[in-house]
From TrEMBL:
Compositional bias of kind Basic residues: 298-314, 527-544
Main location: nucleus
Transmembrane segments: none
Protein name as annotated: Protein SDA1
Organism: Cylindrotheca closterium
Protein's cellular compartments: Nucleus, Nucleolus
Statement: the UniProt record of this protein carries the keyword Transport: yes
Alphabetic keyword roster: Nucleus, Protein transport, Ribosome biogenesis, Transport
Similarity remark: Belongs to the SDA1 family.
Cellular component aspect of the GO annotation: nucleolus
């Protein structure tokens, strides 16, 4: 009910209309309810805001106390009730207040728009600047301001304004805004391309400049924030395309050390960090599913019962998923095969020009005093990973790495690991020979310590594993094989002799190298060092391929083995071999051959058909049945035996099977197992002898096992091409590190003990442990504590004597 007041104004429940319009919070509510009715009051407050902004330009450091409230009111009302021209006018007013006035610049200066800002904008009060930023963020969240316009403004503020809290606020908003733009079903590629091109311009404009690397400079701050933003968006699976990787590739070439360092660290360990985030997410989901609110102390309703059932169902589903059981609880999205297909390529694999980037980084690395030693190690790590993953040819890299291979070099184990990273099959053996000689002269000598010798032997083994053509011998004109400049046979035998070294770490490294040579090129070793498997491989003339030589396959590897396996399996079933598949087939046949009950008219139809069949068959004479026995030749026509085939016939069979058949996932798994079994037969004489005895007994067919050989208990993330210095470290040092890691786990387990995480007070066991001794020394538990191995033990000479415990021990012995 509205009544007139004594002052002549209209009275409401909270006061007169004049009083209400003067309270901005109430006017904001009224404008949302009736925008047209309160448009005049809104315009009056906006004119007041314009006058306050004009006064603020004259004295930026002394703002009006009601200016912040007017800014928040204008942003909230214009973005909800007066969208369009009015909201754009308010947004431009706030932007002008932040940047210190209107600026008109040419297209040439738009790239450097964030570089400078007037002095009046820098003298603006911190509270006013923060309120303007919050108002613009509010208008952006309501969709009034386009994202790119606000992105350019906020980057300019981050680059110029030295306010740490403001930078964090702007950075967090920009990341969340881009994540909201790329939500499922809302992805806008046009906006993404515009934002990515702007960020690329921010980073790449500093590549060619000769900056001093000052972290306080505006250009450095903008480039660092842009790099951090792109790295975080990639890590959160928002931007994972090649355009994002191109931005970070430009950051690698930046003259600003921090930008270069952050982009290289991104390429080296982004997959590991994403795997850690995924594991944390799964652990959080698991912990949340295990907490079930049973509503024990609340009112029992149907809604709460459904809530409890839903929680129990989710807990069971997570339990099945964690155990790896395929059940009706699991969705197709939880299939491990589907999840493996969704895995991203490593970011370093998406580079557009890896050769040009590698040459640019190496050119900077070779300059003396261009970067400090830590950055130089980081650049070596990135460069060798890039060369190893893309198999680039950068021949001047290997002589450069040899300069750092000395026993007194700092972080020499990491440098050796980076050298292993940069080796691949396409590197000429002549380049690797120099590295092997340097390692042998500086590490694998008696003047070095045992730890250095072990590291050197492990490095040589890892390099030879990546470049097997180093071990190959060049063909001589006389028919023999001899190396051109490097005596590979003498080198391999000298290092294999360290398998009998007195130090345990050196002996383990020497045995590892000898086992590697046995599997790769056993002819290099002496007969006594080849072993059982090495002798078998030597008999089969196993040796690595020479440089430039490739093994070209005419079909899918293992297709011929799969054809032989399936043909023998079919013959085994036909001959009455017991198999689970036969039982299933017999069940299907029994189901198909069951009698069906026929009633009514169906019986008459069946009888009529039966009579017709008899009438037709009466005129014909029944043929005599002759038992025909198949000969062994006709029975074995369909069975494929690769042992009786030549290499050309086997290759032809492989091509035929590969071209006429579409393989399933199960077929590829079978082929992988069959190839592994064939390699095992060639390398292990015992397995070959066992197989030969089975064939002699008539057991030609051998079923494949269902066990997967790829399962591993190792929870670490293995990145393609990465070599950890821990892998080539000496055994003694690895043990020390593992002992330290165990101690860390023990200390961490004490903090996360089950009693400390349990809700409620301490248990009775904890209370008894902390109880005063004088209060518990006469208790029954204390008196009977040491009576297990005390005075009344069974004597060794009298095993028939019964031990007396408890009440029996206190009784008096009766005299006989």
């Amino acid at each position: 009910m509205v009544r007139a007041s004594s002052a002549g104004g209209v009275s409401t429940g909270t006061g007169t209309k004049v009083d209400v319009t003067l309270k901005l919070s109430q006017l904001q509510n009224l404008c949302k309810r009736d925008p047209k009715g309160y448009r005049e009051d809104y315009d009056a407050q906006i004119r007041r805001l314009e006058s306050e902004c004009g006064i603020l330009k004259l004295s930026p450091q002394t703002p009006s106390p009601r200016l912040i409230e007017l800014i928040q009111f204008a942003a909230a009302v214009s973005s909800s009730s007066y969208k369009g021209a009015e909201s754009d006018r308010i947004a431009n007013m706030l932007i002008e207040l932040l940047v210190g006035g209107t600026e008109t610049k040419s297209e040439q200066d738009k790239a450097n728009l964030f570089m400078t800002m007037p002095a009046s904008a820098l003298q603006l009060a911190r509270d006013v600047r923060k309120s303007c930023v919050s108002a613009l963020i509010l208008m952006r969240n309501k969709g009034v301001i386009p994202p790119l316009k606000l992105l350019e403004l906020f980057f300019r503020l981050m680059a110029v304004v030295p306010d740490k809290g403001l930078r964090e606020q702007l950075y967090k908003h920009l990341v969340n805004d881009i994540r909201n733009i790329n939500k499922k079903g809302k992805r806008d590629e046009k906006v993404n391309r515009a934002i990515q091109s702007f960020l690329h311009r921010v980073v790449s404009t500093h590549v060619g400049e000769k900056g001093q690397g000052d972290e306080a400079a505006a250009t450095d701050v903008a480039a660092k924030k842009a790099t951090d933003m792109v790295c975080e968006l990639y890590r959160k699976n928002v931007w994972t395309d090649d355009r994002t990787v191109a931005i970070l590739a430009s950051a690698v070439e930046s003259k600003i050390p921090n930008v270069m360092r952050r982009s290289m660290i991104f390429f080296l360990n982004i997959e590991e960090r994403m795997a850690e985030d995924q594991k944390e997410k799964e652990d959080d989901e698991w912990d949340a599913s295990q907490k079930v609110n049973m509503h024990l102390f609340s009112r029992k309703t149907k809604t709460r019962q459904r809530h409890v059932q839903r929680q129990l169902k989710n807990r069971t589903k997570e339990q099945k998923k964690r155990e790896g059981d395929t059940d009706e609880w699991l969705d197709i999205r939880d299939d491990p095969g589907v999840e493996a297909c969704r895995k991203l390529y490593p970011a370093i694999e998406l580079l557009r020009d890896p050769q040009g980037l590698a040459e640019s980084v190496f050119k900077r690395l070779k300059k003396p005093r261009s970067v400090n030693y830590r950055d130089k190690l980081l650049m070596m790590n990135f460069l060798t990973r890039l060369v190893g993953n893309h198999e680039l040819i950068l021949l001047s890299l290997y002589p450069f790495l040899q300069k750092y291979m000395s026993g007194t070099q700092r972080d020499v184990t990491a440098i050796l690991a980076y050298t292993v990273q940069g080796c691949h099959e396409n590197v000429p053996p002549e380049e690797i020979h120099g590295i092997l000689k340097t390692i042998a002269h500086n590490f694998i000598t008696e003047r070095c310590s045992e730890e250095q010798m072990a590291v050197g032997i492990n490095s040589v083994r890892a390099i030879c594993a990546r470049v097997p053509s180093v071990l190959s011998l060049e063909d001589n004109t006389d028919g023999g094989e001899v190396s051109a400049e490097f005596d590979v046979e003498a080198f391999a035998r000298d290092i294999a002799a360290y398998s009998n070294h007195r130090d345990r770490s050196v002996g383990i490294a020497g045995k590892g190298f000898m086992n590697f040579i046995r599997e790769t090129h056993p002819s290099l070793l002496q007969g006594k060092h080849r072993g059982l498997k090495g002798s078998a491989l030597h008999k089969n003339k196993v040796k690595p391929m020479r440089y430039g030589e490739q093994k070209v396959s005419g079909g899918v590897e293992g297709a011929d083995l799969l054809a032989e396996y399936e043909s023998k399996k079919a013959a085994h079933k036909k001959n009455g071999g017991g198999d689970s598949d036969d039982e299933n087939d017999s069940d299907d046949e029994s189901e198909e051959g069951d009698w069906k009950e026929v009633t009514g008219d169906d019986e008459e139809e069946v009888a009529m058909k039966f009579d017709d069949d008899e009438a037709v068959s009466d005129d014909e004479e029944a043929p005599e049945l002759i038992v025909h026995e198949k000969s062994d030749e006709t029975a074995d026509e369909s069975v494929i035996d690769l042992a009786n085939m030549t290499a050309e016939e086997r290759e032809k069979l492989k091509q035929e099977v590969s071209s006429n058949r579409i393989f399933s996932t199960a077929d590829f798994i079978k082929m992988r197992k069959l190839v592994e079994r064939e390699k095992k037969l060639k390398s292990d004489p015992r397995e070959a002898a066992r197989r030969k005895r089975a064939v002699a007994r008539g057991k030609d067919f051998e079923e494949l096992s269902d066990d997967s050989s790829v399962d591993s208990d190792d929870d670490q993330v293995h990145i393609k091409g990465a070599v950890n210095p821990y892998e080539i470290m000496a055994e003694a040092k690895r043990k020390r590190q593992s002992k330290a890691e165990k101690l860390e786990k023990i200390l961490a387990g004490r903090n996360t003990f089950e009693t400390t995480e349990r809700a409620g007070g301490s248990t009775n066991t904890e209370k008894a442990r902390k109880k005063n001794f004088l209060m518990s020394k006469s208790s029954r538990g204390a008196r009977s504590k040491g009576r297990g191995k005390g005075g009344l033990n069974i004597k060794r000479g009298n095993p028939t004597m019964k031990q007396q415990t408890g009440h029996e021990a206190k009784k008096r012995r009766r005299k006989l």
